[in-house]
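Holo prediction — ribulose-1,5-diphosphate.
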Amino acid sequence: MILETMIPPEVKQIARDIRTMRIRGAGRIARGAAKALKLTAKTSSARTPREFMKEIDKVSSLLLATRPTAVSLPNAIRLITAWPKQAKNTDVQTLRKMIISRADEFIKNSKEAVTRIGEIGSQRISKGDVILTHCNSDCALAIIKRAFMRHKLTEVFVTESRPMRQGLISVRELTKAGVPTTLIVDSAVRYFIRDIDKVIVGADSIAANGAIVNKIGTSQIALVAHEARVPFFVAAESYKFHPDTLVGRLVKIEERDPKEIVDPKRFPRAKIRNPVFDITPPEYVDLIITERGIIPPSAAYTIIQDLFKWKS
Ligand code: RUB
């Protein structure tokens, strides 16, 4: 039996960091998981392939239990462990090498995908555009920064993104890159929508019907953009497409501690709810920008089925 105590402390720390959001954002969570699997493979003292794969499974379960919504996490684990899991007549050393090289490959591909999304997405920005983004997405910011470097973009509006205020991370990153940035509260989106040319957000999961799961408030912004006929773009690596939605499974929406909103002791008679993601219907999404190219939301089904061979 693999005991919890046998999991390397650095791996437990990564799991803790994902749970407490020190590591956050779907891409970073996936890369964190890849690093944890690599560390496990490197330090394992398993004597048999069976023992080794049990350790990998144990760590996978620990990671999967951290946050439920970003499919990048299970997809990263699946991509790294699928081969070693099927490998027959192999030894611990070979399995170790497989996990390490697949984790390295995942991290490298993931970072390259973000750069490529920046490149592809920036071509969809017109000279003088004012962009609005929500929360903090590496993919969305890659497009904004690339477009700014190409002298296309005029200004970016960033929502605060309550309750954890990840918008402030975006503001820091964008101003550091020299992008003219305006911070607004989430409820000011409709007030400012007439000043906006395009909305660009990231995604934690994309369902087979093209629905987007992203930071709470995204769907309200999409609704406002739709009403004002402002194009709504989603930027996401291919591993954000959710294979389970092919068979009608729903993406689990994480509900976090109400303390992130306010100290519940101050309102002992009130119930406080803190769902941290929501679902934007595909009708409100104009484009999904991936590292493989731009697709309409209606092509999500094909991406999941064909590109990944993740058949129901
Ligand atoms: C982050 C969030 C981001 C997506 C995409 O939520 O919703 O928009 O994860 O980010 P949280 P990226 O802060 O709760 O993790 O493009 O960086 O993967």
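READOUT: The chain has a mean pLDDT of 95.
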